[in-house]
């Protein structure tokens, strides 16, 4: 092996290790879930997802919409807390990845933070994930959509939108 090749491999290896270390440090410094609660970074991602997925179900009034989203995020805490610890860790890992700019861009193509992106950009991002040829992107889309729906429709006040009158009275 020539000396230049060896030096080139050494530099390339050092750069790869530095990038991997920086990526790991970034992910570890961006927690989204701890002790059964969403942290602000996770809340921002899920708030953005909810704005896109629930568009048309939420009020157009900014104050009412903000209150509905806060209530939704509280239900999201409860929904995630009811899941097995393994699933909680998987969701936390996904949210952590989506909360970082490089992770979000690589996985979803979204170049803006979830909480700052306009609804139409979020919807285009989710639609491209839904129709992606990559199974991982489709799985992430389905997980985000299903979690959002599970938490949103856990509130009896949202059932009327589905035409669901509520559970039958027994007795």
What would you note in describing this structure?
α2 (40-53) packs across α6 (119-130). This protein has 171 residues and is mainly α. The protein has helices at 3-28, 40-53, 62-81, 85-99, 101-108, 119-130, 135-152; strands at 33-34, 37-38. 66% of the residues lie in helices and 2% in strands. The protein has seven helices and two strands; from the N terminus they run αββαααααα.
What's this model, at a glance?
The protein has 171 residues and is mostly helical. It is built from seven helices and two strands.
Which shape, going by the Cα principal axes? Answer: globular
SSE string, helices as H and strands as E = HEEHHHHHH
The major pleated sheet works out as: 2 strands, antiparallel
Mean pLDDT: 84
Number of helices: 7
Helix content: 55-70%
Number of domains: 1
Unreliable segments of 5+ consecutive residues = 14-22, 24-28
- Please give the number of β-strands: 2
Percent of residues in beta strands: under 5%
Summing up helix and strand content along with how strands pair, one would put the structural category as mainly alpha
Q: What's the gyration radius in Å?
A: 20 Å
Q: In angstroms, what separates the terminal alpha carbons?
A: 84 Å
Note the quaternary state here: single chain
Strand order of the largest sheet: 1-2
């Amino acid at each position: 092996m020539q000396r230049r090749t060896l030096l080139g491999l050494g530099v390339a290896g050092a750069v790869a290790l530095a990038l991997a270390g920086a990526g790991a440090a970034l992910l570890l410094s961006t927690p989204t879930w701890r002790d059964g609660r969403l942290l602000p970074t996770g809340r921002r991602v899920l708030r953005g997802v909810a704005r896109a997925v629930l568009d048309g179900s939420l009020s157009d009034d900014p104050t009412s919409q903000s209150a509905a989203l806060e209530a939704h995020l509280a239900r999201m805490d409860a929904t995630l807390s009811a899941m097995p610890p393994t699933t909680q860790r998987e969701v936390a890992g996904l949210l952590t990845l989506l909360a970082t700019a490089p992770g979000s861009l690589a996985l979803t193509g979204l170049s803006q933070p979830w909480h700052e992106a306009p609804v139409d950009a979020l919807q285009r991002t989710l639609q491209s994930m839904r129709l992606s040829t990559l199974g991982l992107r489709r799985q992430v889309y389905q997980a985000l959509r299903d979690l959002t729906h599970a938490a949103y429709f856990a509130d009896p006040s949202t059932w009327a939108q589905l035409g669901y009158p509520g559970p039958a009275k027994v007795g």
